[in-house]
Structure formats: C-alpha cells, structure tokens
Amino acid sequence: MNLVIDIGNTLCKYYLFEDQRLVSHHHSESHSLEWLDTLTPRPSAAIVSTVVDLPAQAEQRLQELGCEVVRFTSLTPTPLTNCYKTPERLGADRLAAAVGAWVQQPHHPLLIIDAGSCITYDFVSHEGHYLGGNIAPGLHARLRAIGDYFPRLPFVEADGPVPELGYDTETAIRAGVIEGMRHEMNGYISHFRRKYPDLLVFLTGGDAKLLAKTQTSCTFADDFLLPRGLNAILTHITL
Q1: What is the pairing mode between strands 220-221 and 200-204?
Q2: Which CATH number describes the domain made up of 1-71?
Q3: How many CB atoms lie within 10 A of CB 107?
Q4: Nearest-5° Cα angle at 88, 86 to 89
Q5: Which of 200, 204, 206 has its CA nearest to residue 228?
Q6: Is 225 within 8 Å of 64 (Cβ atoms)?
Q7: Distance between CA atoms of 138 and 207, rounded to whole angstroms?
Q8: 174-187 pLDDT per residue, tens
Q9: Where would a tag sit more exposed on the chain, N or C end, judged by fewer CB atoms within 10 A?
C-alpha cells in the first residue's frame, strides 16, 4: 500500500493506493499529521509533497512510519524526461500532474490543464518528454483583479448565471471571465491539435468541474491527477 501526502497552505490531503488504484482519500486542516498515528493499513512506502515547512511533530511521525518516505520536489526522478531549462524552479505540482496523465495514457502527446489558483498548461511529448508549459491567472484571481483595478465595478463571485451575453454588470463580468477562460483553453487545445492530431487533453484542478460543464474539447477530467502522479513517482523510485 502506497501513501501519498499532498500538503498545501491550508489543507493536508492524503491518499492510499493499491498499485495504481486509489483506495481511499481524506484531508485534514492540521499540518501536524496526527492522523498518521491511527492510519490503517500501514503503508509500505510514502511520498510527501509540501509547500510549507512541517512542524517537528509531523517530521517525527514521518520518521516513525516504518517505511521509506520520499520527499518529492521537481528534481525527484520521475517516469518522464524533464526538459525544463530551470527544473529546480518548476512547480512540483505541475510535474506530478504531468506524470499522472502519462501513466494513464503513455506514448501519446498530452496537454495537461490545471485550473487552480493559477491555470497552467503543460505539454508532454509522445516520447515521454516534459517540454514545459504556460501559467496564467486562475478564475478567482481574474475576478479579484477586476474589482482591484476598476473600483467602479463590483466584485463578482464565480457561482451564478453565465449567459452567452451578460444582461447586467454582474453576469457580464462573470461570463466575461469564465467564457474567456474557456476560449483560452480551447485556443491552446486547437493549437496543439493542429500540430499533434492524436493529442489527449487532461483537465484537473479546483475549478475544473465549473469549466468542464461546457468544455467538450478535453479528453479526460480527473480530480486526482496530481496524487496519481505522485503515486506513480513513488512506485518508479521504490521498484
């Protein structure tokens, strides 16, 4: 059993995998990893990806886990060949999501779209080369930017009607942002499909479900792309 731990600024998410199959997943708002004390079944290996420094209690619990614990960074060996020119500055989440797509659909050109705080577009060649990608503001950053830079316009929440054409200021802003993101995504997909007709597209991230409602150009929507990638990386290292 593999244990995958993904620690963000506010949440600690953890997943148990049997080979490549996701068995269970949970989350905690604590970074002390107290749930490790009662975790069953006990893992045979673990991987930790974190954007924060862990407290001493968490580090002690990891040491007492009784198995190999891999600390994942963008320099960790993976099933992909990393062609990024500054690999030490590559977001580890981007690389892990790319691996998560590759292990499900190897030997295809892949475009991975992660609609989170930022929206990222990452490309993997059919040879398994991670070639890099682009970063743009995410949904909530775009909505906040309108309120921040244009004081006469209101701050608009993401939830609500998204008509083709806004019928008031609120729907005009929401539709402008969300439809703009969809057109942006479709533009990337169309561009790469012209170059790679057999391209497969993965959509993931916190805002993926909202964008996927009318996004038909994506081949796969996967909420667990990042943990699948971390699990594959752990297997790659420990085999």
Answers
A1: parallel
A2: 3.30.420.40
A3: 11
A4: 70
A5: 204
A6: no
A7: 9
A8: 999 999 999 999 99
A9: C
Strands 81-82 and 200-204: unpaired
Q: Which of 119-133, 192-206, 213-227 has the lowest mean pLDDT?
A: 213-227
Domain extents in the chain: 1-71, 73-239
Q: Which residues are catalytic?
A: 93
Number of residues assigned to the chain: 239
Range 73-239 has CATH code 3.40.50.720: no
Q: What is the mean pLDDT of residues 160-171?
A: 95
pTM for the model stands at 0.92
Taking every pair of C-alpha atoms in the chain, what is the biggest distance, in angstroms? 60
Q: Do the domains 1-71 and 73-239 sit in the same CATH topology, yes or no? A: yes
